Model the fold of this input.
Amino acid sequence: MKEKMQPQIDEKTCAGCSLCVENCPMECLKIREPAFHGDIDTIAYLAEPEDCIGCGLCEKACPIAAITLRKP
Amino acid sequence: MHMPTEYGGYMGRVLQINLSSRECKEYPFSDEERELFIGGKTMAAKILYDNLNGTEKAFSEENLLIISTGPLTGSGAPSSSRFNISTISPLTGYITSSNCGGNFGYYLKKAGLDALVLRGKSKTPVWIEIQNDKVEIHDAEELWGLRTSETQQALDEKLRLKNGRVRKNGKICIGPAGEHQVLYSCIVSNERVAGRGGAGAVMGWMNLKAVCAGGNREVKVADKERMVKHTQKWFRYLKKHPLTGNQLPRLGTPGLVSPMQMRQMLATKNYKHGTYDDFEKISGEVLAEKYNIVNKGCLSCPIKCARTVEIDGQKVKGPELETLVLLGSGFLNNDLEAILRWNHELDELGLDTISCANTIAYAMEANEKGIWKNGLSFSQVDGMPELFQKIAFREGIGDELAQGSKRLSEKYGGKEFANHVKGMELAAYEPRKAVGLGLGYAVSNRGGCHLNGGYLTILEGLGLAIDQTTYHGKGDLTMLFQDLMEMISATGQCLFTSYAFFPSPLLNHPNAWYTRAVNKVLPYCGCVVRIINKFPEIAFFHLPVFHHTKAFEYVTGMKMPFGKYVRCGERGYNLERELNRRFGVDSKKDVLPKRLVKELQDPKNPSSKVPLRKLKKVYYHARGWDRRGLPTERLLRRLKIKETAQD
Done:
């Protein structure tokens, strides 16, 4: 069942530290582009959900437990 | 001989590679040594201390180039992807250590290594690939001559997998400047740079173009559950703090240009003045408004102080404060666009922006004074990119400039305005209005460095606002800050995490009665610093604003109260000093250029110069060093430096 899981990112907790992005083997996580000029709170999001294999490496890499694997 | 560790945070392996014989073997580093010398720059200093006797030259088979990480590197602690490069500097002839962000430190640990010790010289250009402990030395003929971004792209192509993706890796490399052994060439990792001291030239001398590391080893955290909770708290704290949550992400380090102008510490015209009329044109605010696209961070960093700027339709790394000031006000140049281009060009060539800008500023003043007719002059900066190119490839005048300001001033004269300490050029802070930093520059182990010097400017106007020109307390505070920063670097974290050490109300309300009271009292708190220094066991607790100690405990499993943390930093700083002693460093080498100690910055203000003699006296006394500025035998035994030496 695990391959159907996808990372859910808690936007309030995520600090955009990129550890999940760096650890994703499928390169499907990205850091959001700034929403406006001077936006300093860019965080991670699942940019390519169809590529995600639900491996859980992002969940493991997140140092503040802001990612949980759930069914989309 | 594998020496596994019982502590978390460490991979338990240090690898040494001899490029002459192409032999790889494990370097023994025990848990007892980890307890005392932690990691990063302190671990590197220990390895150098055990292997060098003071006769080695930077460009020699005996010199070592050590790339080391700390126990917190890759642990998930904030801003902890850092690594350190230490070696004997070609610029100073003493130890240099350069700390760098990016992702190489993270991947070196993923490859299963705490540190890499390189020595020897390959006959032909090579690059090293490390994948899960496996080391391969590849031919680098086709990489030789490439700029730093081209080199990294070419390496990515070599690491491309069958599925088309590039294998996850961290890289360090040198540019043409390192290949031509420009004395202040740097080592680049992604867009981040280990800039100071000329480690890139040592790598170039070794014929080593690049190192790539990668793998799937995991950093073991001793108490994962508590570490996650602590990191959540710490991330939140950093995001709310006025410096790490607002100023640094919003403006980056260039945000300090305006406060430095206000405090008359903006190095202008080769440190002749402390203010620049056109400072607004090169300020962090204008940079953020006009050119900044996004703030970027190193891996695992919530602060994200780096800038990505757009120039000539290209997205490139923005300049740091020191680069901005030295290429701007340092040259009397108010063209911010030009500075953005030059910054990018210097990174591409692999030149340290600080030393390069200072050396050119020296040449401009030497030309102005008529002691060296070289055609360079302040304000007229049209041909800069060509000049950088000449320096990197050592062509024409570039060959002379490639030697740094110390050697040029010995040849042409003008030592009083060659702004270096021990051969390494100063950062962008004018110390006559930040005398604590002046002391830091003078005594710093790696030469004219603001960070290794204790960065007292944070108290002298750029955070708090203690008296900028008094010598009271500056010796003790410099010692405390040097020791803290030594330890933060040794653990593998970024020094910016320590900004949050200053309680927010003091920074948010600079004119409140309590902030003014702290500013008045702080210079007289030297005795408290000395008590903690002498009896670290008194500080058996964790400070609520200093999250580093608890994180260290949770990751490694070692006890690390605040007092012990400071003591470890003190050990590292004294170890580097003791190593430098072998190379001939004593108080006579702890000097500033005459301009900063004799010439008044403001002719009407007799205290606007660095009272270096007084400052050094207080500092040496606080450190427990003798009159020659050297650690005493008793101190070395107390710090367990002597007993642990192999020689």
